[in-house]
Structure formats: C-alpha cells, structure tokens
Amino acid sequence: MQDINLKITDRNGQTHEVVAPTDMSMNLMEVIRSYELAEEGTIGVCGGMAMCASCQVYVMDGAEKLVEMGDEEDAMLAEAFHVQDNSRLGCQIHITEEIDGLEVQIAPYP
C-alpha cells in the first residue's frame, strides 16, 4: 500500500494538495476532517453514514476512477442542497490507490 495525492478545494476557494494513506480504511470525508479543510461541525455531521450530505463534494477531475454510486448515496443526494451532476458524498469515496490524483471541491454547507 502507498499514500496517494489528492487536490481538495475548500469552501473558501483555496486548493490544498494533500497526501492520504491507503492503508487506514479512510474515506474522503475523514481526510477532509483530518486536514481541517472545513469548519468543525459542517462536515461529516452524520458520522459518514450517507445520511446528511454535509460531506458533499464536486468531482472536478478523476470521476472515472471512482466506484459507481450506491443506492444510499444516490438517495441522499436526491434530497441534498447544492447538488450538481458531479456531486458525490465524501464519506462514500474510499481512499484507495485507484483514486490517486482525484480533484474535488467541497460543496457549500446548507
């Protein structure tokens, strides 16, 4: 296993190049929280259960690297605010070698 590189644009428009480990069973929401790229209490409100959409991101580059969206994620995004065609839930994007180079922007918090 190896670390991967991600580009994450925060809600203020600043882009951060971060390194994420692939051997800790993390998801993108947890990486965003660990790097403190969103204000505490505004991301991962439901704890990563795909029930709140506070970790919604827009996939700017690398969407083809992601696994297909599951039913729970699709249903949550159908009810969320600020949804775009490239929206995904960060808690449903698992940190694996396959997503190295992924670029996302954190969606506005409702």
Key structural traits:
single chain, 110 residues, alpha+beta, 5-stranded mixed sheet, 2 helices, globular
Description:
This protein is of the alpha+beta class and about 110 residues long. Helix content is about 15%, strand content about 25%. The chain has 2 helices and 5 strands, in the order ββαβαββ. A hairpin with a 5-residue loop joins β1 (about 5-10) and β2 (about 15-20). The longest helix has 9 residues, at about 70-80.
* Helix share bin: 10-25%
Unreliable segments of 5+ consecutive residues: none
Distance between the termini: 36 Å
Rg (C-alpha, Å): 12 Å
Q: How large a portion of the residues is in β-strands, by DSSP E?
A: 15-25%
Give the number of helices.
Answer: 2
Average residue pLDDT: 96
User: Which H/E pattern describes the elements?
Assistant: EEHEHEE
- Based on secondary structure, the structural category is alpha+beta
Overall number of strands: 5
Shape: globular
Strand order of the largest sheet: 2-1-5-3-4
Largest sheet: 5 strands, mixed
Keywords: 2Fe-2S, Iron, Iron-sulfur, Metal-binding
InterPro entries: 2Fe-2S_ferredoxin-like_sf (IPR036010), 2Fe-2S_ferredoxin-type (IPR001041), Adrenodoxin-like (IPR001055), Beta-grasp_dom_sf (IPR012675)
Protein name: 2Fe-2S iron-sulfur cluster-binding protein
Pfam family, one: Fer2
